[in-house]
Amino acid sequence: QVRVVESGGGLVQPGGSLRLSCVVSGSSLTIFTMGWYRQAPGKQREQVATITSTGSTDYTDSVKGRFTISRDNAKTTGYLQMTSLKPEDTAVYYCNANGRQSYYGNFDLWGQGTQVTVSS
Question: Confidence band (pLDDT; 50, 70, 90) for 73?
């Protein structure tokens, strides 16, 4: 069974920083793309940043220069380093991972989400 679990959210003042983590667990995994998405109250979920297995990254315009997505060497843990946070970054942040598990086939899974609140 493949699981995706996020952590690292919290309350931070404007201008502050947070680092979110996303752990993908399971046996014999190959993860193709990991991504961070967010959903603010009353709004649709939006893509924040993605990273491929080769390290290619993509960011939504509103976070470019402030957020950095990365993966560990084993490529089963992803991170979102968020700096210069703004109140409009307040949202539930979700991790998505798609890949393949040997013997079981492809997967595309979401974590449960972690709340990020930027407020003074």
Answer: confident
